[in-house]
Amino acid sequence: MRLEQFVLESLGHASYLVGSENTGEALVLDPRRDVDIYFEAAWRRGFHIRYAIDTHGHNDYLSGLTELAARDKDVRLLGSAAGELGYEHRAVKDGEVVEMGEVAFEVLHTPGHTPEHVSLLVREDGHDDPALMLSGGALLVGDVARPDLLGGSEQTRDMARALCRTIQEKVLTLPDHVEVFPTHVAGSLCGGNIGSRLSTTVGYERRTNELLAQVSSGDVFVQECLSLESLPAVPPYWRRMRTQNLAGVERLGTLQEPPGFRPDAFRSAIDDGAVVLDARSPEAFGGGHIPRSLNVELGGSFPTWAGTVLPDGARVLLVLDDPGDLWPATWELLRIGYSVPEGWLAGGMRAWATGGGGLERTQGITAEELHDRLGGVTVLDVRQPGEWADGHIEGATFITAGELPDHLDDVPQDDPLAVICGSGLRSSVAASLLARERDRHPLHVLGGMAAWRAAGYPTVPGDALEGRVRP
Q1: How far is CA 161 from the centre of its chain?
Q2: What are phi and psi of 4, to 5 degrees?
Q3: What is the pLDDT of residues 174-199, one digit of tens each?
Q4: How far is CA 269 from CA 26, 260, 337, 421, 439, in A?
Q5: Residue 106 to residue 117: CA distance in whole angstroms
Q6: Angle at the Cα of 421 (from 433 to 61), degrees rounded to 5?
Q7: pLDDT by residue (tens digit) across 84-108?
Q8: Is the dihedral of CA 337, 340, 346, 347 positive or negative?
Q9: Radius of gyration over alpha carbons of the chain, in Å?
Q10: How many degrees, rounded to 5, is the angle at CA 123 between CA 120 and CA 125?
Q11: pTM of the shown model
């Protein structure tokens, strides 16, 4: 048996290819939308992809299942029998076994993160003991996947109870040696405390995972799962992903090369309603940018924040540091449901400035300057709930960046307004959104709370809900 893991750090996503060395068949689990990587890995190993399956209807990205099947007619799609799936597939039930030569996949119905969720228990060479578990979101490194993505408080409670049963009856009954390979890894917002390792074992989690330690008391486990205050805010684009994934994602077909626009053509596209997404660093953006453009630096968590601030169906124009960034940025957008960008600024900001294009600047403020002006400056903290609870500037208003698009009218109207995050990336995103949508031009705290703490300035702890604007 061969196992290959593919990690997409920007989404905290891991997908897998498992191949049989006896038959040359392979199974792909939780594929992302750009599927070339799986075909190339299969060809390199001498495999052909026989099966593909999603562990659940994902909220955080568009699946590549239908793309795999469209690219190769021999690929057979599998799907949870507990799910209402709109694409052609073979439904697999709890306890069912799918065999590929020396490799056998036992389907485990593992609800909790979602109702239809399945995991695959993998055995090799006819052994009774499983070798590994492809766990999706049923068990993560140091965590379990959140149960709150599908509805209101009662549905969340039902999912937490289901997750407790999954852990008790499906996970903790496994031998300690079983390796666990999750879909949601560090960087994913599907958990609040995911560890940095890319795999774990049942035994290690049994001994170190604080949530699992409480599973013997179901009520305590459920209450911990329902302590949602410290979970990351859900980005707006997540509302669209699950529905599309369950229905079957529209295939990409032949992708067109986004054209490079000179300044006049770029300006015309803006006037026609296209949205400028500036993928340069916050520092470069602050020094001069196209008016009403949104700033999300390429890298790190680009798709999360792009999906947060870009309207659904936006026609995107890109501003890039390097033309070589065009396709990496394009694929990040395609993975979260946007179309190929309408174009990009050929020659970059130098061409825009020399071509007579207008510029705006974001005024930066250092931690020292902010400290000296406290009382005369209103602070908006856009970090995640856990970060706020660990310590924030006294008197600050808390609206997570992920919730800001729905709560722009709740931003304090006092000026000057200073936006702060952990290091400066999210605050630049938030400041650019306020400039575009409310024609406000807040101060951007350079270095964020990291700089504030490094300077020795005080913070106050708080409840993760304290002062927080809730949906």
Answers
A1: 25
A2: -125, 135
A3: 999 999 999 999 999 999 889 999 99
A4: 45, 12, 21, 32, 20
A5: 14
A6: 65
A7: 999 999 999 999 999 999 999 999 9
A8: positive
A9: 23
A10: 155
A11: 0.93
Residue 471 CA to residue 469 CA, distance in Å, equals: 7
The residue whose two tokens read 């209103």 is 378
282 Cβ contact partners less than 8 Å away, ≥ 6 residues apart = 295, 297, 362, 424, 425, 427, 428, 444
Q: What is the 3-state secondary structure (H, E, C) of the chain?
A: CEEEEEEEHHHCEEEEEEECCCCCEEEEECCCCCCHHHHHHHHHHCCEEEEEECCCCCCCCCCCHHHHHHHCCCCEEEEECCCCCCCCCEEECCCCEEEECCEEEEEEECCCCCCCCEEEEEEECCCCCCCEEEEECCCECCECCCCCCCCCHHHHHHHHHHHHHHHHHHHCCCCCCCEEEECECCCCCCCCCCCCCCCEEHHHHHHHCCCHHHCCCHHHHHHHHCCHHHCCCCCCCHHHHHHHHHHCCCCCCCCCCCCEECHHHHHHHHHCCCEEEECCCHHHHHHCECCCCEECCCCCCHHHHHHHHCCCCCCEEEECCCHHHHHHHHHHHHHCCCCCCCEEECCHHHHHHHCCCCCECCCEECHHHHHHHECCEEEEECCCHHHHHHCECCCCEECCCCCHHHCHHHCCCCCCEEEECCCCHHHHHHHHHHHHHHCCCCEEECCHHHHHHHCCCCCECCCCCCCECCC
Structure tokens at 9: 């750090």
Structure token pair of residue 168: 């008790």
Q: How far apart are CA 376 and CA 451, in angstroms?
A: 20
